[in-house]
């Protein structure tokens, strides 16, 4: 078996010793080439090159959700492109702070245990088809958002660029501070939801909204945060939209999310299985895709494609 290992050396949970150990372990069982990323978008470039070169049976990513997102987009091209006829199997060894997609697939959060799990799955020939979300011209793995969550991601990226670790405590503190800072000036936008019957539901005054391809929405350390418990990698999209930034009205909802109670509130629109979603804003607002800040947008369209990706993972 010939495999390419793409490593993000800057990912939160990666260390030189750990990277060497897992590369040695994989290399003892297969013909392994190792590439390290050096800049944003590099993992996508490496995946594209591996696909055009051919000859790889598997591409393994060791990094966070952003690295996995880049590799998936490199392997599949844009959603408008035809699906590649020959596609290497995708393996994931978690290396980020949350690793939402890998954990949603049932991949062990510990990199060394995940390596052993991956070897066993590769040698057994296991693979699993999963749905992918679409955000305009890119694929997404687990969630996208417009408004406050994207602002949090933007602030956290700035802190990481200054050398501060992306710890659960820092994420929680940044979320609270950012919410309080923007609760009065957050521009409202319109959300249009297309349900499974083709009916359109328009939410004209939305303060923040998420679109999900699977659950959970994220992890806070070891704690699961589920905004749309019924959304899965084999179904439609989940949508979670709030009509207010009021602390008094959102605090009970946040508490329900933290204790994994059913997330509902009068100001909340939630559906765990829809066909499509569109965001329209009168001014450009920040957007995040799979935990990466991607700039500001006026509009963004979300959809999904069934069985778009083959990934090496335990059965659903």
Automatic annotation (TrEMBL):
The lineage of its organism: Bacteria, Bacillati, Actinomycetota, Actinomycetes, Mycobacteriales. GO terms for cellular component: plasma membrane. InterPro entries: ATP-NAD_kinase_N (IPR017438), Diacylglycerol_kinase_cat_dom (IPR001206), Lipid_Phosphate_FormReg (IPR050187), NAD/diacylglycerol_kinase_sf (IPR016064). It comes from Gordonia araii NBRC 100433. This is DAGKc domain-containing protein. Pfam families: DAGK_cat. Its cofactor is Mg(2+). GO terms for molecular function: ATP-dependent diacylglycerol kinase activity. Belongs to the diacylglycerol/lipid kinase family. SMART domains: DAGKc. Residues 1-139 form the DAGKc domain.
């Amino acid at each position: 078996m010939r495999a390419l290992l793409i490593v993000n050396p800057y990912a939160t949970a990666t260390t030189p010793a750990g990277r060497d150990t897992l590369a040695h372990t994989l290399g003892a069982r297969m013909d392994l080439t190792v590439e390290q990323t050096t800049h944003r978008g590099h993992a996508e470039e490496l995946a594209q090159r591996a696909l055009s070169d051919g000859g790889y049976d598997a591409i393994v990513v060791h990094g966070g959700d952003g690295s996995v997102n880049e590799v998936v987009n490199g392997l599949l091209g844009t959603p408008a492109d035809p699906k590649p006829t020959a596609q290497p199997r995708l393996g994931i060894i978690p290396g980020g702070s949350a690793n939402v997609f890998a954990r949603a697939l049932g991949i062990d959060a510990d990199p060394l245990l995940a390596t052993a799990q991956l070897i066993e799955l590769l040698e057994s020939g296991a693979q699993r088809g999963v749905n992918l979300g679409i955000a305009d011209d890119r694929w997404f793995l687990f969630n996208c958002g417009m408004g406050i969550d994207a602002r949090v991601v933007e602030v956290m990226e700035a802190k990481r660029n200054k050398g501060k670790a992306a710890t659960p405590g820092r994420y929680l503190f940044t979320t609270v501070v950012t919410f309080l800072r923007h609760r009065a000036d957050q521009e409202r936008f319109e959300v249009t939801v297309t349900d499974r019957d083709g009916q359109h539901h328009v939410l004209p005054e939305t303060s923040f909204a998420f679109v999900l391809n699977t659950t959970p929405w994220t992890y806070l350390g070891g704690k699961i945060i589920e905004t749309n418990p019924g959304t899965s990698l084999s179904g439609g999209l989940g949508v979670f939209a709030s009509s207010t930034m009021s602390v008094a009205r959102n605090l009970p909802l946040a508490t329900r999310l933290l204790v994994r109670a059913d997330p509902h509130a009068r100001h909340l629109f939630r559906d765990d299985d829809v066909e499509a979603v569109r965001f329209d804003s009168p001014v450009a607002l920040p957007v995040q895709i799979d935990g990466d800040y991607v700039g500001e947008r006026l509009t963004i369209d979300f959809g999904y494609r069934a069985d778009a990706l083959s990934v090496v993972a335990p059965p659903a």
